[in-house]
Design a protein that fits this description.
The complex is a heterodimer of chains A (109) and B (291). Chain A has 109 residues and is of the alpha+beta class. Chain A is 28% helix and 35% strand. Chain A is built from one helix and five strands; from the N terminus they run H-E-E-E-E-E. Chain A is rod-shaped and about 80 Å long. With 291 residues, chain B is mostly beta strands. Chain B has a single domain, classed as Beta Barrel (Thrombin, subunit H), CATH 2.40.10. Chain B is globular, with a radius of gyration of 20 Å. The N and C termini of chain B lie far apart (64 Å). Classes of the chains: A alpha+beta (109), B mainly beta (291). Chains A and B meet through helix 1, strand 3 and strand 5 of A and helix 1, strand 6 and strand 16 of B.
Chain lengths: 109, 291
């Protein structure tokens, strides 16, 4: 009887410890998969069919390309002089003008 | 009870932060495992207008390190400065003369400024996005080695370039380019050695990035020191200050045997460099683009 009780306690402890290990692993994996989201607000200086040149408030210029699976509004709908907000992964390629690849573009009011 | 504690201890060891370097597992930038495959380069001859795809296979004996030596044609060597972005006032001394301002024109008419660095008499390395975007590719690149404001001590033009076929405009892991020039300006400017590595180390923790940032007035060369972190199979992070215009800058350190050796190519703000791998160095050596 006593040994059965000991076994039950041991099993409970084991399950508890196993659960804590799994929780730690889940948190670690979750943190690693966090996707970055960055935005730039700027004025359209030049509008091409598949890319556009914008200038942000600091005067920095970016050529905005579209991600392969971009399904937002066509670039042609953002006329030169309009203010836009660009969503991108956070990667800024450092040519000048700099290059970003947008997954979302919206008019900025 | 003892058995349970033992099992738990083993599990804890397995899942803890202890790293066992039994085998290098290729990873992409997110740290995910990737299936090993042959790298391929797109060769573009801008003079003849021809293109072809070639394998970038590991032909030399496998090694975790592949080195080439720097060429310093001028006896004076610059003293490495402090850890702040500083302007290079004499750009015609080693290693600075081997760094070039790039004036890039894409086929769609978009123009860019960038940076590149000599690795042999007529070959330079730069970022892939200096030569290819998701919608276009380079039509012409004029190379101003050692440019210092309006002073352009030596000029060359790109005749041919190579970019990885996996780079289509935004794949940072494959963001590197090789440029072949129309003259052997490297015999005058000198060139960087290469320290190609595989595995979890790039052989140094302290690096320097030198290039042509656009946020500081004029067409001047600036340099900044930094440290390396987050090394993956194809990229690493660094703390050197950079800005737009510095894509393609050498990320390098000084080696007593080989001279100034590039370990990476600066590509992105944040700050990231594309790693110079043993595969790349061996291909460059095998094809006469690095010595």
């Amino acid at each position: 009887m006593q040994s059965k009780k000991k076994m039950m306690i041991g099993l409970s402890v084991f399950i508890l410890l196993l659960a804590s290990v799994l929780v730690v692993l889940y948190v670690k994996i979750g943190a690693g998969n966090e996707s970055k989201e960055e935005t730039i607000v700027g004025t359209v200086l030049e509008n091409k069919e598949s890319s556009m040149l914008i200038r942000d408030e600091t005067g920095a210029e970016y050529v905005v390309y579209l991600e392969a699976d971009y399904n937002g509004e066509e670039i042609g709908t953002f006329p030169e002089g309009s203010r836009v907000r660009i969503w991108f992964s956070g990667e800024i390629a450092e040519t000048y003008p700099m290059q970003v690849t947008a997954y979302r573009i919206e008019k900025d009011s | 009870m003892k058995k349970i504690i033992s099992i738990f201890s083993v599990m804890l060891l397995l899942f803890s932060g202890i790293t066992v370097y039994a085998q290098e597992i290729p990873q992409d930038n997110e740290g995910d495992s990737v299936v090993a495959q042959t790298e391929q380069l797109l060769e573009v001859d801008v003079v003849n207008g021809t293109e072809r795809v070639i394998d970038l296979s590991e032909t030399a004996t496998y090694s975790m390190v592949a080195d080439t030596a720097a060429s310093e044609t001028i006896s004076e060597r610059s003293v490495i400065g402090t850890d702040e972005r500083t302007k290079i006032t004499n750009t015609t001394i080693s290693p600075y003369y081997a760094i070039a301002y790039l004036s890039i024109t894409m086929e769609d008419g978009q123009t860019y400024r960038g940076t590149g660095f000599m690795i042999s008499p007529n070959t330079m390395l730069t970022a892939g996005h200096c030569l290819k975007s998701s919608t276009s590719k380079a039509k012409s690149v004029t190379v101003y080695a050692g440019r210092n404001g309006t002073s352009k001590p030596i000029t060359a033009h790109m005749t041919k370039y190579y970019v990885d076929t996996k780079y289509t405009g935004s794949e940072a892991d494959w963001d590197y380019g090789i440029m072949v020039l129309d003259s052997n300006i490297g015999n005058t400017t000198g060139w960087f050695g290469l320290h190609g590595t595989s595995g979890s180390s790039i052989g140094t923790t302290n690096i320097r990035v030198t290039g042509y940032p656009a946020d500081l007035a004029g067409y001047y060369m600036w340099t900044c020191a930094g440290t390396v972190s987050n090394i993956t199979t194809n990229r690493f992070m660094h703390t050197a200050d950079t800005a737009g215009g510095e894509s393609g800058s050498p990320t390098y350190f000084y080696n007593g045997t080989y001279g100034n050796q590039a370990v990476g190519i600066h590509t992105h703000g944040g700050n990231y460099s594309r790693r110079i791998t043993t595969t790349l160095v061996n291909w460059l050596k095998d094809n006469g683009y690095a010595k």
